[in-house]
Design brief:
binds NADP nicotinamide-adenine-dinucleotide phosphate, alpha/beta, 49% helix
Length: 257
């Protein structure tokens, strides 16, 4: 059975490929979209496109790593327009760079701050009001990269594994409060971030294809929305096979860095 379609939806990273496609998917009359991004110009363009489809749109251009500013914004939202659905989508990637250089600490720190700290702060800031109302849905963008650490992107895989574990735990904890939590684990989706990742990108999908799959999974309140199917099975097997085998597979498949 599907959940009641959400009327107020908060999407972070709405200036990026997946966030913009999700905003476009949900934009229609009767829906209030609250869209966040950093790039104000791109955010305005996304908002205009959603308004042209009949949605009411509010925007917030901000860096989510500013936790006090984020918490203040979430307090305002909780008091005035608590969302039915929140999609914690903003994220970034780093990699080991050319010539086995390794990740730079400023990049690692920025990634951990955004992918883990800001995402958890976002959930943490909205959960009290959702529990009081006994309704709400929180979708957390993890990745298939959470199943097994790829040598080419160590910190990214670690951050997405953290969000997978956090989302699973919060889903269990909030189940009796009427608040749903979903962990979203896409494979390769065409975007600036994806383009910047080293290694092969099998079963590459468009952001629009990904948005449809994510939205359908959220409507069914699936605990884990992981896709596409072949890559989902492959990466899941990496997690359950003996680690020495998985390490060999990953190297053979050219993710060895
Ligand atoms: N694409 C893939 O293959 C793939 C696969 C699995 C999971 N994912 C996950 O899906 C999510 C969206 O990825 P995408 O592919 O759509 O990437 P993208 O096109 O690069 O978009 C990233 C988004 O995050 C926002 N962002 C980055 N740093 C921020 C910060 N410090 N504060 C606030 N917002 C910030 C960006 O905003 P500005 O552009 O305005 O700075 C942009 O809206 C990420 O969490 C990613 O890890 C992606």
């Amino acid at each position: 059975m599907n959940l009641t379609p959400p009327a107020t939806i908060l999407i972070t990273g709405a200036t990026g490929a997946i966030g913009c496609a999700l905003a476009g998917y949900y934009a229609k009359p009767g829906v209030h979209l609250i869209l966040q991004g950093r790039n104000a110009e791109t955010l305005a363009k996304t908002a205009d496109a959603c308004m042209a489809q009949g949605a009411e749109v509010s925007t917030r251009a901000m860096d989510l790593r500013d936790i006090p500013a984020l918490q203040q914004w979430l307090a305002e939202i909780s008091a005035t327009c608590l969302p039915d659905l929140v999609i914690a989508n903003a994220g970034m990637n780093t990699n080991n760079g050319p010539g086995r250089k390794g990740e730079d600490w400023p990049d690692i720190e920025a990634l951990l701050d955004l992918n883990i700290k800001s995402t958890i702060a976002l959930v943490n800031g909205l959960v009290p009001a959702m529990r009081r109302r006994s309704s709400g849905q929180l979708a957390l963008l993890s990745s298939l990269a959470a199943f097994y650490g790829l040598p080419v992107t160590p910190s990214y895989c670690a951050s997405k594994a953290a969000i997978k574990a956090y989302g699973e735990a919060m889903r269990g904890w909030l189940a009796r409060d009427g608040v749903h939590v979903n962990v979203v684990m896409p494979g390769y989706i065409k975007s600036d971030m994806c383009d910047g990742m080293p290694g092969p990108k099998p079963f590459l999908m468009t952001p629009e294809q990904a948005a449809r799959i994510i939205a359908k999974g959220l409507a069914k309140n699936r605990a884990r929305i992981s896709f596409p199917f072949p890559l989902n099975i492959g990466t899941w097997l990496l997690a359950v096979f003996p680690a020495a085998w998985s390490q060999r597979f990953v190297r053979l498949l050219n993710y060895g860095g």
